[in-house]
Design brief:
By secondary structure, the protein is an alpha/beta fold. It folds into two domains: 301 residues, 3-Layer(aba) Sandwich (Aminopeptidase); 125 residues, Glucose Oxidase, domain 1. The protein is built from 15 helices and 14 strands. Helix 2 packs across helix 11. The termini are far apart. It binds zinc ion. The site of zinc ion (ZN) has 6 residues, from helix 8.
């Protein structure tokens, strides 16, 4: 009898041991995640539904509010604690615009931060690429007139020119006394582009518009043998608006006070539905959140899934979130920020911000690649500006983003009237959810994170080393003085 009991006990102990030994390996876990997302991803279907039922997602508009509500409800449906984080800012929105070239109406859109009201008439002066060099030969030539510039570098220009952003070209036109600026887009078939024309995010004093490539080239041709005049008329709004970041939280299982933030801006411009900028990023974040619950992922650290609003008009949502975290003394809890902006079909990772352990990412990437060789495990450490990671980066938070492998043609619709759902590839957005889930879990559950938050002095030096100081000064975001 005693022997039998002992024998049974031994068996129990042995089976208990094998039970704990059978803890899921990373490879098994990633395979399980991958299978689930391939079967159940909702990234494509929710973006489709939102595009069809809401349309564009301009911050401060009725549509924008609907998008905030839509994603809030989805997070709830997936089982999250969700909150709206409301912020109030002055935001620009377009009204009417008309452009007449020698009395003939032309298809046109207004660039962001153009005046509330404007009505100007003047001769058009061709200023080529719109770079400083294009003004210098005749510095007063554009004074009191309307500058015509190409958005990129024209074919046949001297070698080695560096292009400027549309806002910088606008700023140059203002400097040389232009009363208006017409920017020619570079995408064939009359595609029109929007986006801000202001380097600081404040309203600019002259009207700035974009016209299609063919129309623009025709005007350039006419200007070779005669003068051509333009009449630009517009109204816009710049009002205090309310918008809401949507924040879903998954509390960490071991070190809950440490937070990993994953975000993608939900807002879009209003010329189309913003399917690529940034439907594919934000709806991937939404699906990564779904996948965390569906696969019962319980990482050590807290994960915050965030839909930022106000990115397009000036990173308003992410600036607000970071400002609140500074005010509430919780900024040091944010250990990493992963940003998905126009991110699709990832094939690798980019660490922006100080990097201490590259092997961490290449090892994590190798584990992802084992699931699918579509993922090529490329890696870089480059830092840039102009998306929601920026306010975090300026506080020294390490950043992670992805290398996207999307069809080049897609980028022609950036900020344009063709950025619609037909550009979205189902496999590509599903891949973002698959590989993004593995990356995020890898970070949130890491024994030791690959980089730590930089202090203010180190961050300052980091910005200088990455040639970001000038740009931050121009944008009014340099906070360190000389
Ligand atoms: Zn974007």
């Amino acid at each position: 009898m005693k022997k039998v009991i002992l024998f049974t006990l031994t068996l129990l102990v042995i089976s208990a041991c094998t039970e704990t030994k059978k803890e899921e390996t990373q490879a098994e876990l990633f395979a399980r995640i991958d299978t689930e997302i391939l079967q159940n991803s909702k990234a494509y279907s929710t973006l489709k539904e939102a595009s069809e039922t809401i349309g564009h997602r301009l911050t401060g508009s009725e549509n924008g509010a609907k998008a905030e509500e839509y994603t809030f409800n989805k997070f709830k449906e997936y089982g999250y604690e969700v909150e709206h984080q409301t912020f109030e800012v002055e935001a620009w929105a377009r009204g009417m615009v008309a452009l007449a070239i020698d009395d003939e109406q032309m298809k046109v859109v207004t660039l962001g931060h153009s005046p509330i009201k404007s009505d100007v008439t003047g001769d058009i002066i061709d200023r080529g690429n719109g770079l400083e060099a294009d003004y210098l030969s005749d510095p007063d030539g554009v004074r009191g007139k309307i500058a015509l510039v190409y958005i990129n570098i024209l074919e046949g220009s001297p070698e080695g020119l560096t292009n400027l952003h549309r806002s910088e070209k606008t700023s140059l036109a203002m400097k040389y006394g232009a009363i208006g600026i017409i920017i020619i887009n570079q995408v064939p078939n009359g595609v029109l582009l929007t986006g801000t024309a202001s380097v600081t995010g404040a309203l600019i004093p002259i009207p700035a518009v974009c016209i299609g490539m063919e129309d623009g080239m025709a005007i350039k041709a006419q200007l070779k043998d005669k003068s051509v005049s333009a009449h630009i008329e517009m109204t816009n709004k710049s009002d205090m608006i309310k918008a809401r970041n949507v924040v879903a939280t998954l509390t960490g299982s071991e070190i809950p006070h440490e937070e990993i933030v994953i975000g993608g801006h939900l807002d879009s411009w209003d010329l189309a539905t913003g399917a690529i900028d940034n439907g594919i990023g934000s709806f991937a974040v939404l699906d990564i959140a779904r996948a965390f619950k569906a696969n019962n992922l319980q990482p050590k650290r807290t994960v915050k899934f965030i839909m930022f609003m106000g990115e397009e008009q000036g990173l308003f949502g992410s600036r607000h979130l970071v400002a609140e975290a500074i005010k509430g003394n919780t900024i040091d809890n944010i250990k990493y920020m992963m940003n998905l902006d126009m991110a699709g079909n990832p094939i690798g990772m980019n660490a922006g911000g100080k990097l201490e352990n590259e092997t961490f990412f290449t090892a994590l990437g190798a584990a992802i690649q084992k699931q699918d060789t579509v993922y090529q495990n490329t890696f870089s450490n480059r830092s840039g500006l102009h998306s929601d990671h920026q306010p975090f980066m300026l506080e020294g938070v390490p950043i992670l983003s992805v290398h996207s492998n999307l069809d080049r043609s897609i980028y022609g619709c950036y900020h344009s009237d063709c950025d619609d759902f037909n550009l979205v590839n189902k496999d590509h957005i599903t891949n973002t959810a698959r590989f993004g889930t593995m990356m995020l879990y890898g970070l949130a559950n890491a024994e030791t994170l690959p980089a730590i938050k930089m202090d203010s002095e180190t961050t300052k030096q980091f910005m200088i080393d990455n040639n970001l100081k000038e740009k931050l000064i121009i944008g009014g975001d340099w906070k360190w003085g000389e």
